[in-house]
Structure formats: C-alpha cells, structure tokens
Amino acid sequence: MEQTSARGKTALRVVLNTLLIVGGVVVGFFLLLMLIFAHPTEKLAIFTLYPATMALLLLLVNGQRKKKWFKWVLILWAALVVGVGTALGLYYHEQSIPTMDDRYMSYSPYHPFNEGTKAVSLPEESTLQLTYEEASSIRIDGATALYPVYASFARNVFEPSTEYYTWGDDRAYTLDCSSTTSAYNHLVCGEADVIFCAAPSEQQIKAAEAIGIQLHLTPIGREAFVFFVNSKNPVTGLTVEQIQRIYTGEITNWKDVGGRNQKIRAYQRDEGSGSQTALHLVMAGLPLMEPDKEEVVDGMGGIFTQVAAYRNYDSALGFSFRFYSNEMVGNNQIRLLALNGVTPTKDTIRDGSYPISSYFYAVTASPIGQPSPEETNPTLKAFLDWCTGPQGQWVVEEVGYVGAE
C-alpha cells in the first residue's frame, strides 16, 4: 500500500514537473518576445523574477519546502520581489507623469488639405495662387512648432492636393516637418529648398560653411522663448539672471527663488534644436550644466540614449517657444513663467517688453558667393514675398504668432 502511495506521489511529481517545465518554456517564449520592446527596468525584472520564481516552484513541486534552508530561499525570493517590484513601480510612476516633447508631437491636424484641418484660411482670396506643378517645385521643411504657419501658407497659396505631404524614402515631398535640426541638414544637403525655423546655431552655420554653403534668412514672424513649471509649483516668475544661474548649476533648489524646498529638475533639449539654440542665447556665453539623459527603446527594440524629454514633475523647469507650449499643448498642467516681471503674450512680444523674443525665418541656402535661391527662382521669390506681405502676415498672426513687422 505504501509502495503504491509512493509511486503515486512520484508520478504526480513527474506530471507536475513536466507541466511546470512545458509551461515555463511557453511563458519564457512570450517573455522573450516582450524583451524586444522592453525598457531596461522591465528587462531586469524579467531576467531576475522569472528564473527565480521558476526555481522556487521547482523546489516546491519536488518537496524541498521542508528543508531547513528552504525558508532562506523563500526570504531571498520575497526580497527580490519587493526590490524589483519597487523599481518597476517607480518606473511606471515616472512613465505616468505627463511629458512635453515636440520631437514626437503629432502635427497631422495641421495638414493643409485634410478634411477638418486646423490650418488657417484667409477671409478673402489669396493674391498669389500657385498651380500644383509650381507648388511642387518648392520643397518645404521646418520646425514642428512652425508647421501650423507654413501649412497655413500652403493652404491659401497652393492648388489643393494631399500629395504635398505624402513622401517616401526618396523624399519626394513638398511639405515636410522633420524638426529644426533635421530641417537644417536637409537644406544644406539640397533636400529642401526653404525651411521655416528659428535662427541657426553657430554649429549649424559652421557646418554649412564647411561644405561651402551660406544661409539666407528672411524674417517671417516673432515668437517668445518661454520657461514653464508644473501648475502646482508656487513660483510664478523668474529673472533672466536666475534662469542663467539655474542652468549653470549654481541655483539647485526652488527655495532659493521663492519656491518649496525641492531640487530643481532643469530640463534641456538636443543640441541644434531651435529651443536649445535659444537657451544658449539666454545664457550669453555662460556654460550650461550637463543635461539629464534617458534610455529610449525604439520601434525595433534597440536602446539609445537621448536628452531627456521634459517630464512634468512638481519640481520641473522646462522651456520651449510660446506657441508650442501655449497653443499646441494647450493644457492646464503647466504654467508659463513671467521673466523679469513680464508675462509672455502677443502684446509683450510686439512691444518688446518681454525680455526673450526673437524672429523666426524662412531660410534658404546657396553656394558661398552665389545668389540666394529666391533671387534665381521666381516661384520661390513670389511665395516668400507673399509670406512677408499683408496676407502672409495676417496668417502668421491668426495662427497665434506675432508678425515680423
């Protein structure tokens, strides 16, 4: 009888071991697939918790729980669960905090000829009308925050067609929006005819000159460079000097500028971006502290490091251009700061009382010493003349920026 019982227990153990191993292989296969798209914190959890849990289950199935050392195995496993669980919890909490990052912003609502577009239309007929063939000869690129402006230009001047923003690997497009850095690269490499961006950085000017290219800037409008905080942050304004001291690392706590006793999380942007170039101008030659970096998983499972996107912590400080932060984001989770006691508005940009405002431009390129493209391309000249004329400037104002005049 005892032999039969022992054989039954052995058979049951074999069955349970088999089920556990087969189930472990199946679960492990799906976890491997998850690893392709997992963040390093999630990968750590999978690589530690899964084998530890499988080992614990095997010990239980094989009757090892009565061993004296088993309780220490259980304690170690529980400690591992708590530690990894805490790390995962912190990671998921961080991911739940809203971010602002125009690198990944959807600009499709402003495509000029889509149904329900947010692009601006003139109240009267445009004084310039370009046929599809003429319009398609001008390859346009630019900053994300300026796409609503040049998309609205196209809506009023170009013959309607959604083909303008249908492009592929050959970059056979008319209206693109690839960020400030990429737009300047496309311009100097001859892959764009005109870009709408903030002024180029020193590095971008030097990079163009290094390959024999000069840049030509036509002022299109003006915009404020703004700083913002979480709406729960009690600080409502800073001075330019305080901004400089924060971004050199001299001021590190909000209590030193009238806020709570919290470390300041001062975010930056990628070098060459329009907003980071503007920050350099604000710093007036003062050295910037090293920006925070973050690991990002791309669509194919690769991991790369980039300057961290602004994450709206209570203690965060970020910057951008007024239109993007105020109009395109349009939420009540952040508050724009007054600088030197002046709030960034269209009126304070126009009258010059807001201390950090600048032009944005239509930028073209030509070989050094050669005429600009708008001097040799009648269609491009007519388009830029219209952009800087009364109707184009009305569009700039209606979109939400300030005209160049």
Judged by helices, strands and strand pairing, the structural class is: alpha+beta
Helices and strands, in order, run as HHHEHEHHEHEEHEHEEEEHEEHEHHHE
Q: State the helicity in percent bands.
A: 40-55%
Average residue pLDDT? 86
- Strand % is 15-25%
Shape: elongated
Q: Runs with pLDDT <50, length 5+?
A: none
The description of the largest β-sheet is: 8 strands, mixed
Quaternary: single chain
Kindly provide the radius of gyration, computed on alpha-carbon positions and rounded to a whole number of angstroms: 29 Å
- How far is the first residue's CA from the last residue's CA? 102 Å
E-strand count: 14
Describe this structure in words.
By secondary structure, this protein is α+β, with helices and mostly antiparallel strands. The chain contains 14 helices and 14 strands. Strands 2, 3, 4, 6, 10, 11, 13 and 14 form an eight-stranded mixed sheet that branches. A two-stranded antiparallel ribbon has the order 1-9. Strand 7 and strand 8 form a beta hairpin. The relative contact order is 0.13. The model has no long low-confidence stretch (mean pLDDT 86).
